[in-house]
Design goal:
single chain; 2 domains; alpha+beta
């Protein structure tokens, strides 16, 4: 029995050192050398300050105030509205929106009443924001990614069609030619995964940062 105890203790120590310390250090070292950007979360910095990640969506919104104080909902979360100067990510299923610490998606089926209500609300919100700058926009023309959430709830990209619609608003609010905004959209549009998987996507964070540089906005 004593021999079994000693053998077990040695096994625990050896496996802990190898699997819990040496192996993680080895993998961390390899990843930092081979692809440091991905290993560190594809961080995006401006002037040395961390402003986000290429892998995580974020909200570009302003917090509403009530009686001179920041407005919050019944759960204490800030009440916000989209900032018209910026391209907006797709709807987020997390609370608050684009919360990387709580990635989630709806488990409801496509015919569930809650799903239908959420999609309808997203479409109406999209029309309220974009239609004043694109009068011909109708519910039927709203892109899928503007009506539904992604699997993670924090997708950083939007479709080219979605960006094309939002470009009208951004160009008008920033007093830029639509053609210049569309050139930036094209510049920050990524291709399909491995050349064949999925659809091209526009990274909202990179696009908004480029717009700020173009117009001299510091946010």
């Amino acid at each position: 029995m004593k021999r079994d105890f000693i053998t077990s203790a040695i096994g625990i120590v050896v496996l802990t050192l190898f699997c819990g310390i040496l192996y993680p250090l080895l993998i961390t070292g390899i990843s930092q050398v081979a692809f440091p950007g991905s290993a560190n979360g594809q961080q995006v910095k401006v002037g040395g300050k961390l402003v986000g990640s290429q892998l995580i969506g974020q909200s570009f919104a302003t917090q509403l105030t009530k009686n001179g104080k920041p407005e919050v909902d019944k759960n204490g979360n800030p009440v916000t509205q989209p900032d018209p100067m910026y391209f907006q990510t797709r709807p987020s299923a997390t609370t608050p929106p684009n919360n990387a610490a709580a990635t989630t998606f709806s488990n409801f089926g496509p015919n569930n009443v809650a799903t239908e209500q959420a999609i309808s609300a997203n479409i109406q919100a999209y029309l309220a924001l974009e239609k004043p700058y694109d009068p011909g926009l109708t519910a039927a023309k709203v892109p899928v990614d503007a009506a539904n959430t992604s699997a993670s709830g924090i997708d950083p990209d939007i479709s080219v069609a979605n960006a094309g619609i939002q470009a009208h608003r951004v160009a008008a609010v920033r007093h830029l030619p639509l053609s210049e905004v569309m050139q930036l959209v094209s510049k920050y549009t990524g291709g399909r995964g491995l050349g064949f998987s999925g659809e091209p996507g526009v990274n909202v964070l990179e696009l908004n940062l480029a717009l700020n540089r173009m117009t001299g906005v510091h946010a």
